[in-house]
């Protein structure tokens, strides 16, 4: 039996210069998490601060996938930036809720909703000590 029965597909688009929309398709597990992590690290390296993770085509995610999401969440917070999960499949949403990840990382129903949350985040950051002030 081949380990790569369910290869991961990751498509990155940039709705804004500092926002990466990462659409993931396939199982997000111990066999595919490293590939997912590489895509996120590449976007961090290129100056993206906000990550919209479209998990609508991920039928299964294990702790490896959750750990990567939590790691990029922490890295984004340090920038400061944000991470948003978009439209997770029902089984994935259940895992996110049971583990409490959905409390830490906001879950949105659409890209538009997640972008509105990015705007709200930017508004909150603008009220603090901003280097652009």
UniProtKB/TrEMBL annotation:
Cite a single GO MF annotation.
anti-sigma factor antagonist activity
Q: Tell me the Gene3D superfamilies matching this sequence.
A: STAS domain (3.30.750.24)
Q: Tell me which CDD domains the record gives.
A: STAS_anti-anti-sigma_factors (cd07043)
Q: What residue ranges carry the coiled-coil annotation?
A: none
Which InterPro entries does this UniProt record tie to the protein?
Anti-sigma_ant, STAS_dom, STAS_dom_sf
* STAS domain residues: 17-118
| Source organism, top-level taxon | Bacteria
Family note: Belongs to the anti-sigma-factor antagonist family.
Report what the protein is called.
Anti-sigma factor antagonist
Recorded source organism is Streptomyces resistomycificus
């Amino acid at each position: 039996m081949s380990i790569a029965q369910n290869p991961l597909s990751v498509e990155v688009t940039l709705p804004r210069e500092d926002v990466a929309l990462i659409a993931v398709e396939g199982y997000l597990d111990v066999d595919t998490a490293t590939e997912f992590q590489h895509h996120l690290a590449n976007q961090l390296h290129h100056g993206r601060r906000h990550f919209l993770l479209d998990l609508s085509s991920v039928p299964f995610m294990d702790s490896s996938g959750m750990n990567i999401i939590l790691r990029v969440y922490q890295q984004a917070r340090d920038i400061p930036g944000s991470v948003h999960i978009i439209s997770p499949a029902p089984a994935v949403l259940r895992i996110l809720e049971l583990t409490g990840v959905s409390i830490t990382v906001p879950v949105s129903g659409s890209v538009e909703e997640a972008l509105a949350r990015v705007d709200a985040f930017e508004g909150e950051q603008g009220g603090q000590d901003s280097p652009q002030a």
